[in-house]
Amino acid sequence: MPDALEELAKPVIIGRSSSLFTRITRIFAAEMRTDYSLRVLRDLMSSDPGDYGGNPALRIPTLQTPQGIWFGALNICRELWRRSSPRPRVVWPEDLDEPLLANAQELVLQAMATEVTLIMAKLAGASDSAHHTKMRKGLVNMISWLEENASSALAALPPHRDLSYLEVTLFCLVTHLEFRDVLPTASYSELNKFCQHFATRASVRETPYRFDT
Ligand SMILES: N[C@@H](CCC(=O)N[C@@H](CS)C(=O)NCC(=O)O)C(=O)O
Known about the structure:
It is a single chain. The protein folds into two domains: 3-87, Glutaredoxin; 90-201, Glutathione S-transferase Yfyf (Class Pi), Chain A, domain 2 (Up-down Bundle), CATH 1.20.1050. Helix content is 52%, strand content 9%. The chain has helices at residues 3-9, 20-31, 73-83, 99-123, 130-155, 165-179, 189-198, 202-205, and strands spanning 12-15, 37-40, 62-65, 68-71, 90-91, 163-164. A four-stranded mixed β-sheet has the order 2-1-3-4, covered by helices on one side. It has a two-stranded parallel sheet with strand order 5-6. The two termini are 32 Å apart. Bound molecules: glutathione.
């Protein structure tokens, strides 16, 4: 295939190297051995959907492929998986059919959303409301619950897997809390143990959080 056509066929992730949700998709892309380009969203305050790859929610990440556009991290990870060959054995959220595992995934996703809201409120200079205090309390509660339950939840994952959405999202969440100074995580020993172990993957080493210049 000529270079220009090959470039067009290559998926594009619109996101940021500092973004929690973007990193989830980049870890998946690396695990699926999918080549992609990262188009950096420069202004997180932009209200032009075009800057977000057409996402009307004004959120990153978005994936552009010759077949169409995919909004949101889970959609993107699934599409990267469908495009991969051979397809690794991935445990998806809908496979978590017992309360401990399903609740762990729910709380990781909710903590991610809460963290993003706290960061955006701080950027907008609006971080001193009663609601903000409640969100911080909820975030601390969720991280404490995960500290108590993550090791049994992770042990209950199907052993014959290459990857799970739960592990990728948990890793990206815990490391992002520290990276963005939202919550110190040093005291959460079980979560740190998991992160240290998960960080040995090449896909993690290739996608460190950093602020794009
Ligand atoms: N539901 C989306 C949420 C993505 C999201 O919240 N991304 C953050 C960056 S990590 C964002 O776009 N924030 C901009 C904003 O909140 O205005 C997903 O699963 O990908």
